Amino acid sequence: MIKKVLLITLLVMLPISMKSQDEVQINRSPKLVVGIVVDQMRYDYLTRFYKRFGVGGFKRMINEGYNCKNNHFNYVPTYTGPGHASIYTGTTPKNHGVISNNWYDKFDNKMVYCASDASVKAVGSDSELERMSPHRMKTTTVADQNRLHTQLKGKTIGIAIKDRGAILPAGHTASGAYWFRGKDEGKWITSTYYRNDLPNWVQKFNDSDKAESYLKIWNTLYDINTYEESGADQNTFERGYTGKSTATFPYDLGKLKDQNEGYDIIKSSAFGNSLTTDFAIAAIDGEELGKDNVTDFLTVSFSSTDYVGHNFGVNSKEIQDTYLRLDKDLERFFTTLDSKVGKNKYTVFLTADHGAVHVPSYLQSVKIPAGYFDKDAFTKKVEAFVKTKFKADGLIENISNNQVFFNYEVLSKNEVRAQELQKAIAHFVLQENQIDKVFTRSQLEFGNYTAGIAELIQNGFNQKRSGDVVIVYDPATIMYSKTGSTHGSGLTYDTHAPLLFFGQGIKKGSTTVETKITDISPTISALLGIAFPNGATGDVLSFVLE
């Protein structure tokens, strides 16, 4: 009896590994993670065009994967740069520092671009405008963390027509990031931040004249009379292309090229997404992504949906055709992943960097409150008020991105207290037409907002980079032309974005529980069993994971 008790005690004390050869699997490691961002995609594009989609693109993700139907951005402003940074860092501009596409740098007293970097050179182009890197983004991305976790063995490749759409997602440690240089070049390029020459596969792709092949007639994929999910083809709410008198199908891109910035016309057509898909497929082969058991990362941003939306608007035939064609491109892309990487050996997520508002002039035509904001007139009015009240010139250094920046040297010289100036401007501005709310630096630094627009503003407010007064327009009020759509607000038309997961490690299902854009990277990190991005504030969506 004593021997039996001793034997049982020894067995209990043995390490788990000695008790059984069956180990618990604590993470799933797909060969490849693909992050897809569809620029300017409202969630309701999924539902509005659903019956027109094929089975292999959006519907495949929905039917085989997990659909988060109530996914939102949890900060303002909803622009491309902050959107891509927030998706992949798992936090908001408050922490990652990408507060807009362009913002006023109060230390250098100039506007800066979110991806510009004067310390690097373009590779593949002689343009001085293509000197880009992620150096303004202050935190790591999930792709960075995968690189660190795998001792840099797992590759990361970023691809987008827009430079910021390729650069910010791929992070600081990327193996490569490539974007499309239009104008008179029509090539995919990179910068010396990543390498000093284009790899052979990129050079081969550029030499194939693939971009040239898309300078063709853009007509609707199906009979335009069947596009019942969008408005009339001819209307007064669309801009169109220079050289064509009406914004109506068809568009001869080859003939319109020279009057529309050369190869840039491809960017603003549905074919820009097809070109991006072609290049992404070339990258899978060229970089041998997903070929071994070390997880690689491919980030792909479809930028042309944004260009088309800005040009033609949310309700246009052009936007519908662009999404129907994108659906086919996604099917082609997923089929390639099936054959090159293997079914259920890769994981994909798809989301957007922001939504878009219906064209305000269209909303006005159907009696919905909307409008256009005159920034120049507003700026003059605010500057005149401050000069009169405080008897000093130059107290305001800049007004941009709905923010007022103070010149603290001038404040000090004139003995004007910053808090007093904040309060005076906030009170004055709030009396103006089309202004809905105003927040001061003091409120955002010392308050703690937990709901509504105030919380979103605070999440987008970076203490070092943001201004001293933040202005919020009335709903559906924009600073833009009277044709085409734009974005940037904290209202649902800009914050409600799709979020789809599918592939290895992902459950099938859907939810209407609210999820946030900052939840994506922690969820993928948990799937991979890697450290979260170092500034991450989002949550793991455990109900998505197997």
The helix count comes to 23
What separation lies between the terminal Cα atoms? 45 Å
Principal-axes geometry comes out as globular
Q: Widest sheet: strand order?
A: 6-9-8-7-12-1-13-20-2-21
Q: Cα-atom Rg, whole angstroms?
A: 25 Å
Largest sheet: 10 strands, mixed
Low-pLDDT parts are 1-21
Total E-strand runs: 22
Supply the helix-strand structural class: alpha/beta
| Helix share bin | 25-40%
- Roughly what is the average pLDDT, rounded to an integer? 95
In percent terms, what proportion of residues is strand? 15-25%
What is the topology?
Layout: H1 2-13, H2 16-19, E1 32-38, H3 44-48, H4 58-64, E2 66-68, E3 71-72, H5 80-89, H6 93-96, E4 102-105, E5 110-113, E6 122-123, H7 142-149, E7 156-160, H8 163-170, E8 176-181, E9 187-191, H9 200-207, H10 210-213, E10 217-218, E11 251-252, H11 253-256, H12 264-267, H13 271-286, E12 296-302, H14 304-312, H15 317-342, E13 346-352, H16 360-365, E14 371-372, H17 375-390, E15 396-400, E16 403-406, H18 408-413, H19 418-430, E17 435-440, H20 441-446, H21 452-459, E18 469-473, E19 477-478, H22 492-495, E20 499-503, E21 509-511, E22 515-516, H23 520-528
